[in-house]
Amino acid sequence: MEAIYIPHLLKAPKRQAEIIVNDHIARLNTLTPVKGTINVRHGGNFLEIISQAETIITLACDRCLQNYNHRLRINTSELIWLASEVEKVEDLPTEREVPMEDLSETLPPNGHFEPETWLFEQLSLALPLRQVCGENCPGAAKTSQSDQFQVDSRWSSLAALKEQLNGSQD
Predict the structure, then answer these.
(1) Residue 158, domain member (yes or no)
(2) pLDDT tens-digit map of 101-142
């Protein structure tokens, strides 16, 4: 996917561009190509990005460590503000308070929008936090309530001492 030069969007029909995605994304190891669309619209002082995409990715189960396939889908949108060059990093103090309105993504109005990088970030954010292969995962041994109260035999001496101390307090 090629980068979009932001000023060219102003001359495009309806000030927008549609990108058809049917390719693998660098740094994202997928089984199938990422398929979907990315719509980028220039709104004057912001870019509005709307995307629907999906792919299949191989994950490792957090419980049993076996690999399994997971369908990764996104249906997302984002506003990216177009702001002239922000303060130079060298001029920033080591500590400063950042207002809430500065906690948004910005691009220079005469810069480029990288759809592949943006799509990689969105797909990465859509990855499940808990990667579990399924309800029948062999690593997901369910314990009964009676198992929870059984004392490990290695602690039996300590349990006997505890009983002895409880008995002497009565």
Answers:
(1) no
(2) 665 788 899 999 999 999 999 999 999 999 998 888 887 565
- Beta strands 106-107 and 67-82 are parallel
Which tokens in the block code for residue 53? Answer: 């995409």
In a domain, 93, yes or no: yes
Indicate the number of domains in the chain: 1
Q: Within its chain, how far is the Cα of 8 from the centroid?
A: 30
- Encode pLDDT of 56-90 as tens digits: 999 999 989 999 999 999 999 999 988 876 554 55
Query: Comparing C-alpha atoms, which of 21, 56, 58 is closest to residue 37?
Result: 21
Q: What is the rounded distance in angstroms from the CA atom of residue 101 to the CA atom of residue 96?
A: 14
Residue 72 in any domain: the answer is yes
The Cα–Cα gap between 74 and 36 comes to 9
> pTM here?
0.71
Domain extent at residue 130 = 4-140
Domain assignment of residue 162, yes or no: no
